[in-house]
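Sequence in, structure out. Go.
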Amino acid sequence: MAVYQTPGVYIEEVSSTPQPVKPSGTTETAIVGLVELPATFRASLDNQANSSESEDGDEPVRKEFPVDITKVQGFLSGEAQAVSSTQTFHEWRLHFGCTLYKAVCQSTTPSLSPDADEAQRRWDHQSDAVKDAWHSWLRATTGMQRLELSLTGFFANGGTKAYLGVTVFGEETSVSPTQHCEQSFGLIQDLALICAPGLNLEWQQAILSYASPQGRDDLFAIMDTPRYLLTDYGANASTELNEGRWRAKGPYTSTPFEGPTLEYLASNTPQPASHTPTDAELEQAIPRDFEGYGAAYAPWVVMENPLRTREQDAYVVAPPSGHIAGAFVSNDNKHGVQKVPANQILSGISELAVSLSSQEQGPINTKNINMIRHQPGGVTIWGGRTCSNDPLWRYINTRRVMSFLHSSIQSTVKSATFFPNNEETRSNVVAHISHFLYSQWQKGVLDGATQGEAYSVQCDENNNPDALVKEGIFQVDVGLQPPYPSEFVVLRFRETS
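Output:
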């Protein structure tokens, strides 16, 4: 709002009437990715020999350059970039690799490149072999490979556009989840979904908070569960788990990744659950809220390894959230946001890391953790609950319908700002909102046998008394009836004579 201090006449040009309601998007997805950098880089960063003789004058010693990872983070910060296919992801990956190279060159001690132009020249002068080696190293990092696996699953299941918010971290240089989400996604208005594939509990909590009224209040978080929620950790015996089965101690605990670096498998033979989580473990296995701004999925999945080099690493274990996000998009495009994205077959999966029976799923489902199960048609999403502790927000479609309608209607109410708070403005706002809600009711987004049961809109002198009007407050009350899913289908049979 403008601040007026000097007496005089100020002219504001505004629209002649509040604007009609335009449906907001429900499918565009924010994906968080992290790449670990070593504390030093060797001379391969330099386009010259950059070596010195050893103390005895024989073998040359390759120099290593310490890297200020915080400085690298600064070079990489900014708005997330969109990709719309696996091909555009790989194009983005190559571009990101070039950008990272130049950022590292400008962040070494001593600096290999004092400015961006010199860093670009250094990259341009590298041989194709050096560039290929750099890109291969980046692609094989845990963070980039998990991002690639998740995006492969996202697009295989119907995902259309993903915004990648990717940065780096080091052993002694962490990343603030909240700050990273704000920097990457804060200015992108059309987002509806967010996930952080393969990242730990802190990051799952962060995307839930960012999606909720604590953050943007217009996203839905698709969260992973602990890798070892339903299985023992076998070969990773040095790993210790916390009360929610998240990795607590052991190899790579200084990283934000969940589970070991990457788990490779020689076959995709299904494994039964080898651990039955307690109620306490299930309660602490996922972040929870009261408003239902997120949902969590288990177990992790097995995929073909795109970087396979031998028979022993033909398959790789991957977090499920990227696949689930793609299924959300496909569900919305086929059925609409009013349908729970469940009872939906997943593509791009060779096997599940753990296979569960209906009896084993029961206690997990009651704790609002959605399972991915083997069903006759294939690997299927077999749960549709949010992480909410409030039964009112138990189901995913309830929260997403309300968020969709909130976001859509908000633009119309915002367009009424600075209009006179009188009968004409109120009537226009009611007409626009009612027309929009009627169209959504006809599409099945709202439940009810009649319009009156499905929605109500009030904006008149009763909820805009003089006291509020003089305070500059324009109030609209909207009542909505979202549909509730059939989670339990009960067939009742009786014998007739």
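Check: The longest strand covers residues 29-36. DSSP finds 14 helices and 21 strands in the chain.
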